[in-house]
Design goal:
The chain is built from seven helices and two strands; from the N terminus they run αααββαααα. It has 151 residues and is mostly helical. It has a two-stranded antiparallel sheet with strand order 1-2.
């Protein structure tokens, strides 16, 4: 079974990703590059995201190493790191390096469960129902169905 590093190199060779995507893929090579692709579990993936959040935001400097700024990362930054890794797994599946039935460790995080447990999303939906629809939204789409009243 190929390692994550080998599959990322294959992915980069088959496409020409942007420089930012290459930097994000380098992060995954540093963290989990030597492990086999099928041996990476969702727990390993979550641990890597925790390490990314502990690292925090970096300040780029021209011609020098980046420095940590001490500021936390935005939620969209996590998505920017998760998305290319999902593309790498899809590439591995397309090249038949993974079984078709293999469940990606990235899938749960892309759905938001890595940062927002399901019980939170249920409570957020309940709060949104109490608050009413957003301004300009179609109320028939967002409101729950009305029960028929039988006297």
């Amino acid at each position: 079974m190929p390692t994550l590093c080998a599959v990322i190199e294959t992915f980069v060779a088959s496409r020409e990703p942007e420089r930012a995507t290459l930097a994000r893929l380098d992060f995954w090579i540093e963290i989990r590059g030597v492990r086999e692709l099928s041996a990476i579990t969702p727990e390993d993936f979550d641990a890597a995201l925790v390490r990314l959040s502990q690292r925090g935001r970096l300040v780029p400097r021209r011609g020098k190493e980046t420095l940590p700024s001490g500021a936390p990362l935005a939620g969209s930054t996590f998505n920017c790191y998760i998305s290319p890794l999902g593309s790498v797994y899809r590439c591995a599946r397309r090249l038949r390096l993974l079984l078709r039935a293999y469940l990606l460790p990235v899938a749960d995080a892309a759905a938001g469960s890595a940062r927002c447990p399901r019980r939170w999303s249920r409570s957020l939906r309940a709060c949104a129902r109490r608050a009413g629809p957003p301004v300009g939204a179609n109320p028939r789409v967002l409101q729950p169905k009305q029960q028929a009243f039988d006297p």
